[in-house]
Each structure stands twice: as C-alpha cells, then as structure tokens.
Amino acid sequence: PFLRLLEAQLQDQRRKYEEEVEALKKQVDVTKEQLEKQQQTYLQIAQLSPEAQVEFGIQQEITRLTNENLDLKELVENLEKNEKKLKKQLKISMKKVQDQKASQAMVLPEGRQYDFNMEVAVQRKEKDFQGMLEYHKEDEPLLIQNLII
Questions:
Q1: Residue 25, CB half-sphere, CA atoms under 13 Å: how many?
Q2: Phi, psi (5° rounding) for residue 33?
Q3: DSSP state of 149
Q4: Contacts of 115 (CB under 8 A, 6+ apart)
Q5: 107 - beta bridge partners?
Q6: How deeply is 53 buried, as exposed, middle or buried, from its count of CB atoms within 10 A (0-12, 13-18, 19+)?
Q7: What pTM did the predictor assign?
Q8: Which residue stretches, if any, does this entry annotate as coiled coil (predicted)?
C-alpha cells in the first residue's frame, strides 16, 4: 500500500513535470516566432530610406495608440455599466430603508408618533476642571506625595 502511494505520487509528479515541459516548449516556440518576425521587420526597416523609416515608426505608433484607445474605451464601458448597476442597487437599498423606517414608526403610549430621524440632545454636567486629574481637595497632599515618589 505504501509503495503504491509513493508510485502514484511519483507518476503524478512526472505527469505534472511533462505538462510543464510541454507548456514551456510551446512558449519557447511562440517566442522564437515573435523574435523572427521582429528580426524580419527590423531588416525591412533597415533597408528603407530614412523618410520611410520615420513613416513606418509613425504608423506603428498610430497602431499601438489605436489599440490602447480601444482597450480604454472597453474599460470605460465596463465601468459605466458597473456604475449603473451600483446606482440601481443604491436606489433599491434606499427604498428598502425608507420602507423599513415607515413600517417601524411606532405609536408611543401618549399617542405621539416616534420619529427615527429625531436628534438626541445630551445634557452634560458642567465641571470646573483644574487639570488632567480629578481629585478631592483633602486628597491633594497624598496625591503630591505619590507623584514625588
């Protein structure tokens, strides 16, 4: 049983290794083809006159910018679709919140309607602070002694 497990693991690793090797070989072939195309293009450009080389360079840049522009247009369209979707979800959520507030409006025992938007007023007791510590006047000598120690 243990040997079969090891054998199965070894075969699995071998299969993965062979798949990786095949993928890398394909990648190398694609890279070689791209390099050959670039070399042929370079040789063709080198044979052209300086004006034609400039024209070719401009044409290449126009092609690159056009492709980049199309990619950006697609991105903008996707973002606009996403924005519309999110706005729709926001409207639905706001409607749910409003409906929930309306359904939760309770009648208080005195007969008044409870308003959830009502602000709460908190009253604070005003104190005269002398510093960062609060203490009783009679504890002052003990506090000073502890601070010195």
A1: 6
A2: -60, -45
A3: -
A4: 105
A5: 113
A6: middle
A7: 0.41
A8: 3-96
